[in-house]
Design goal:
heterodimer, A: 2 domains, 10-stranded mixed beta sheet, 6-stranded antiparallel beta sheet, 12 helices, B: alpha+beta, 29% strand, elongated
């Protein structure tokens, strides 16, 4: 293995719902070794769990099937490997769907799928609680027992180990459930460079590489505030890739002839995204120290990243638990000049008075005035004579009927409230079930991951 | 002189539960020490008074010329519980950059801040 060898991991999806064209553009736009696709956000698992309850073959990110179809030639004929946490709460079902795609594309025999399971703790929840694992809420300290009967999904965040195993057993498509986003990038580097389980600095570097590209184009010019007007051709934005070396250093870049930008500011913005204590970015494999990251320009749309230090992880895994927490609905009406804001505020008062008279009880009622104070609140300061404002009112509570009744109270305001109102064509607001997030910790030793590698 | 933070820094924000994080990055490395001095925890807490219900934590990242702030109780419960437009704290970044800070004129000149005379 030459020390100058680089491994190229490209990000093709930053969340479930990201750009459908991105995976194909990543494998066709230039040389890549691995395509990394991140589909899971905190609440995604509960959505998938609900889908699986309705149909046991479901419960994974369906977008991934289309993505696999679009990249199948690269996987089957050019040796590009795919790593995705698209499996959700049903990685084997996801693998079945990918096998169907391979067959339809005449690529059977060229696709070996590694399926990682063991992160799903829902079937084991009572066993764990009975065994003294409290799964207390990391933010409030409350024991899980208090919401046990409302739990929808429970998944441990698992690390790079099972993905590395799948790759070393010959998988060229690895499908996981709740792997950490960063492990999807770090695992192939660990596999390729033979990094050991205690090569803390290198593992940490792989995690930082993962953090930089896990949100897709958010490190290559998308959602970038720095000099945003000068960022070229976002219509044709290039998703990021890392060119990693065995020593743990890497370059963040994107394919030639794509839009967007990779620069020290664009990468810096992504590094601080969703950051907690930068000294301790905790993952199942390693704790990365983000205060040791060094960035340097390395030519056009290239940033070199180096110097990263890591330390041993804890003996816990984070568990992402989702539970039913009542209902909510949000509705809007638009009020026009003159006195747009005064009219909207009057409408809000009238609506609240009517809810009050009906004796409807909610845990929260929130009104925002879009165009005036919805995003920055009082920090936006006083505004005068706005051409229009949208009254956006939401309610949340445990009583579904009360939330339903609220949704009937907006439309009448059009004829029986303040004047110059419009923008109600969308109809009644929809009642949504609130699925709340319960972060917890569990002993690493109780989570057993399993790897199956099948053609 | 008074100067708005948006003239000195760029920023990105995100969420963890009901906490928003705001990373503030100096536009010029030479301006980072000024941010460290001006953006104290108390100053940021005062800026967001009435907007957040919890406390503020601050971390320094001199390697990135950046400060990271955790704003607790910022998101109306966070995630899917929240009724807010910005339930995931995406624009706390620019809310932070509205802050006005005082810089002595000679320091502003020495640092070549925009608008320094």
């Amino acid at each position: 293995m030459s020390s100058s060898r680089t491994v190229r991991v490209a990000a093709g999806q930053g969340f479930w719902g990201d750009w459908l064209d991105a995976p194909r553009r990543q494998v066709e736009g230039g040389q890549v070794d691995y395509l990394m696709l991140d589909y899971l956000a905190e609440v995604t698992m509960s959505i998938l769990q609900k889908q699986k309850e309705r149909d046991p073959r479901m419960g994974y990110a369906r977008d991934f099937v289309g993505a696999m179809d679009s990249v199948m030639p690269a996987v089957a004929d050019r040796g590009v490997k795919v790593i995705a946490n698209a499996g959700g709460v049903n990685p084997p079902g996801c693998a079945d769907a990918v096998r169907d795609v391979a067959r339809a594309r005449g690529a059977q025999g060229k696709v070996t799928i590694g399926v990682v399971t063991g992160d799903d703790l829902l079937p084991r929840l009572d066993e764990l609680l009975d065994g003294g694992h409290q799964l207390a809420n990391m933010e409030t300290g409350a024991p899980l027992g208090s919401v046990r009967d409302r739990v929808l999904s429970a998944n441990a965040y698992i690390g790079s180990e099972p993905i590395v195993e799948a790759l070393s057993r010959g998988a060229n498509v690895v499908i996981t459930g709740r792997s950490t986003d960063t492990a999807l990038t770090m695992a192939p580097l660990r596999h390729e460079f033979g990094w050991g389980a205690t090569d803390w600095d290198k593992l940490a570097a792989g995690i930082v590489a993962g953090h930089i590209i896990e949100c897709g184009a958010q490190c290559s010019g998308g959602n970038c505030l720095y000099d945003w007007k000068s960022i070229p051709d976002l219509a044709n934005v290039g998703y990021p890739l890392v060119e990693a070396s065995a020593d743990g250093s890497f370059v963040v870049t994107k394919h030639a002839n794509t839009g967007g930008r990779v620069s020290v500011p664009t990468v810096s913005e992504q590094l601080v995204y969703e950051m907690g204590d930068p000294h301790s970015y905790i993952t199942p494999d390693v704790i990365a120290d983000f205060t040791t990251i060094h960035l340097a320009p390395d030519g056009e749309n290239r940033v070199r990243v180096f110097g990263i230090r890591g330390k041993p992880p804890t003996d816990k895994l984070k568990v992402s638990i989702a539970y039913r927490a009542g209902f909510k609905a949000v509705g809007t009406l638009v009020y026009a000049w003159p006195d747009a804001l005064d009219k909207a505020k009057a409408a809000d008062r009238i609506l609240r008075e009517r809810l009050d008279r009906m004796g409807l009880k909610f845990d929260e009622i929130l009104t925002e005035f879009v165009g005036v104070s919805a995003t920055h609140g009082p920090l936006a300061g006083e505004v005068h004579d706005v051409p229009e404002t949208q009254m956006r009112i939401g309610v949340r509570g445990g009583d579904r009927a009360a939330v339903e009744r609220f949704t009937r109270e907006l439309a009448p305001l059009v004829l029986n409230g303040p004047p110059s109102v419009t923008g109600f064509a969308g109809g009644r607001p929809k009642v949504e079930e609130v699925v709340a997030y319960w972060p917890a910790l569990v002993d690493k030793s109780v989570v057993k991951t399993k790897v199956e590698v099948l053609p | 002189m008074k100067i708005r933070l948006t003239e000195l820094a760029h920023a990105r924000s995100g969420d963890k539960g009901d906490t928003a994080n705001v990373g503030v990055i100096a536009l010029e490395p030479a301006w980072y020490p000024l941010l460290v001095k001006a953006l104290t925890r108390d100053r940021v807490a005062a800026h967001f008074r009435g907007v957040i219900t919890g406390g503020v934590e601050r971390y320094e990242l001199p390697n990135l010329n950046a400060l990271n702030f955790l704003l607790h109780g910022a998101l109306g419960g966070g995630g899917t519980v929240s009724l807010k437009t910005d339930a995931q704290g995406k624009v706390f970044s620019t809310a932070m950059l509205r802050m006005e800070i005082d810089v002595p004129d000679d320091e502003a000149r020495a640092l070549k801040l925009p608008g320094a005379k």
